[in-house]
């Protein structure tokens, strides 16, 4: 006795060719999931053989429908098969040129059901199919020569990775950064003397704003290799967020209001996983209440914000670049970076806006940071520091109005803060701003 047929992810059963339209959907659906499968006409969904009238014209019509309504075209085997003494139509099909469309729409097999794909899912399927061909980090930089690579930068990397330096060319070969003697893009952005000469979008933009981007307090742009840009980004953040202090034995230790390891991990991820095809830079935006690290390119390989927060999953747009980072312990192979960020800064937010992936850290309340800066300040001096921390562009007149004292009294308190190394003015009365010093003068 013939074993009973059962529908599954690669097998579809139809009672008759009257369900030909639905059969075409199932074929495309199975191809998009498994790239091969089978379909029977003459067997119902429960596996009961009911038979099907089969003539040469029947087989021709089925073949024609598949040829005309499934794109890209496939060439299935369509023949008559007798099951339990009843004639049926058996179709075997295969194809790797996904996504396949049935009558202009794409479907995917889920169990024994066919689900229509949305536009984003179709796009992701196309990207996944071509990701090896489209891997920017593995492409050859046609203009770059061995002489464009910095021996010093390469030597530093190899030392960090525990490897020995030979010549520039041999060292690049050992790191798999050459293809038929040509330099890959990854080698250029990591080790070129002037990476921006080849890739103007490999840059870092940093800015300090007020509550919104309408008020710009500072703006700077940096170029260089990716390792240099990571360090520049970290330094810029530390110079423009508040510092508290704690005692460790007899020593005071600076404590940034945002955990340093957390925002450094976000910076590294921004450069490692960004889409280098997009003509944009990694951007650091520091606001009164938050820090944003913006990276060109959305999540990759079907990842969602929920999945990356759950942890344990890793889809890398730039596999070769990520491997270089891993060799010097900048990233983990198992995608634990997001977990590290959330462990140190649990309120971190992740979002996709337009074509950017944005990591947002909340800044701590100024209260406490100013209080812990130094001892011995009078109340009005503490208020001035709080006002400056809230708004570095604040004027002396505004301070006087908020505190309820004269501008002369404000001047006296500011002079005290300046002498103690707690406050400084950057720029003139117009266009300048206040800064709270990171390292106050020590009392004699």
Short description:
By secondary structure, the protein is α+β, with helices and mostly antiparallel strands. The protein folds into 4 domains: 11-130, Methyltransferase, Cobalt-precorrin-4 Transmethylase, Domain 2, CATH 3.30.950.30; 140-197, no CATH class; 203-362, Heat Shock Protein 90 (2-Layer Sandwich); 375-436, Arc Repressor Mutant, subunit A. The chain is built from 15 helices and 20 strands.
Q: Top keywords for this entry?
A:
444 residues; Methyltransferase, Cobalt-precorrin-4 Transmethylase, Domain 2; 4 domains; 6-stranded mixed beta sheet; 4-stranded mixed beta sheet; elongated
Write up what this structure looks like.
The chain has 444 residues and is of the alpha+beta class. The chain has four domains: 11-130, Schlafen, AAA domain (Methyltransferase, Cobalt-precorrin-4 Transmethylase, Domain 2), CATH 3.30.950; 140-197, no CATH class; 203-362, Heat Shock Protein 90, CATH 3.30.565.60; 375-436, Winged helix-like DNA-binding domain superfamily/Winged helix DNA-binding domain (Arc Repressor Mutant, subunit A). It is 35% helix and 23% strand. The protein contains 15 helices and 20 strands. The protein has helices spanning 20-34, 56-69, 119-130, 151-161, 168-174, 185-191, 226-240, 260-273, 305-310, 319-327, 337-344, 366-369, 379-390, 396-403, 407-419, and strands at 11-14, 36-41, 70-71, 77-83, 86-94, 101-102, 105-110, 113-116, 178-179, 182-183, 203-209, 216-223, 243-248, 251-256, 282-286, 290-296, 349-353, 356-362, 423-426, 433-436. The chain has a six-stranded mixed β-sheet with strand order 12-11-15-16-18-17, covered by helices on one side. Strands 1-2-5-4 form a four-stranded mixed β-sheet, with helices on one face. A four-stranded antiparallel β-sheet has the order 3-6-7-8. Strand 11 (203-209) and strand 12 (216-223) form a beta hairpin. The longest helix has 15 residues, at 20-34. It is elongated and about 105 Å long. The N and C termini lie far apart (100 Å). The model has no long low-confidence stretch (mean pLDDT 87).
């Amino acid at each position: 006795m013939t074993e009973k047929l059962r529908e599954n992810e690669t097998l579809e059963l139809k009672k008759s060719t009257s369900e030909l339209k639905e059969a075409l959907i199932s074929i495309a659906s199975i191809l998009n999931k498994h790239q091969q499968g089978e379909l029977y006409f003459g067997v119902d969904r429960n596996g009961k053989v009911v038979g099907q009238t089969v003539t040469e014209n029947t087989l021709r019509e089925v073949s024609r429908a598949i040829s005309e309504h499934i794109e890209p075209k496939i060439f299935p085997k369509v023949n008559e098969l007798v099951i339990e003494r009843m004639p049926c139509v058996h179709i075997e099909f295969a194809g790797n040129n996904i996504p396949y469309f049935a009558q202009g729409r794409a479907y995917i097999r889920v169990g024994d059901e066919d689900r229509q794909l949305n536009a984003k899912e179709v796009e992701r399927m196309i990207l996944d199919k071509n990701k090896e061909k489209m891997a920017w980090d593995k492409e050859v930089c046609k203009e770059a020569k061995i002489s464009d690579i910095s021996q010093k930068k390469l030597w530093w990397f190899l030392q960090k990775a525990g490897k020995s330096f030979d010549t520039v060319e041999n060292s690049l070969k050992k790191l798999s950064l050459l293809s038929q003697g040509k330099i890959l893009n990854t080698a250029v952005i990591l080790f070129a003397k002037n990476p921006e000469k080849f890739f103007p979008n490999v840059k870092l933009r940093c800015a300090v704003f007020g509550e919104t981007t309408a008020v710009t307090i500072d703006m700077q742009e940096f170029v260089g290799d990716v390792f240099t840009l990571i360090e520049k980004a970290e330094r810029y953040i530390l110079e423009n967020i508040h510092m508290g202090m704690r005692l460790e034995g007899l020593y005071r230790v600076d404590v940034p209001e945002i955990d340093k390891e957390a925002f450094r991990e976000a910076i590294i991820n921004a450069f490692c996983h960004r889409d280098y095809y997009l003509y944009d830079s990694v951007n650091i935006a520091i606001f009164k209440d938050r820090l944003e690290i913006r990276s060109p390119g959305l999540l990759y390989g079907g990842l969602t914000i929920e999945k990356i927060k759950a942890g344990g999953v890793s889809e890398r747009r730039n596999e070769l670049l990520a491997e270089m980072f891993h060799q010097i312990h900048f990233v983990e192979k198992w995608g634990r970076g997001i977990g590290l960020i959330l462990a140190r800064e649990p309120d971190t937010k992740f979002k996709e806006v337009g074509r950017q992936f944005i990591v947002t850290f909340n800044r701590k309340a100024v209260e406490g940071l100013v209080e812990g800066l130094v001892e011995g300040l009078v109340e009005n001096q503490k208020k001035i520091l709080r006002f400056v921390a809230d708004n570095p562009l604040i004027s002396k007149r505004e301070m006087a109005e908020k505190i309820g004292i004269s501008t002369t009294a404000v001047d006296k308190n500011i002079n005290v803060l300046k002498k103690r190394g707690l406050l400084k003015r950057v720029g003139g009365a117009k266009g300048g701003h206040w800064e709270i010093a990171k390292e106050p003068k020590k009392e004699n």
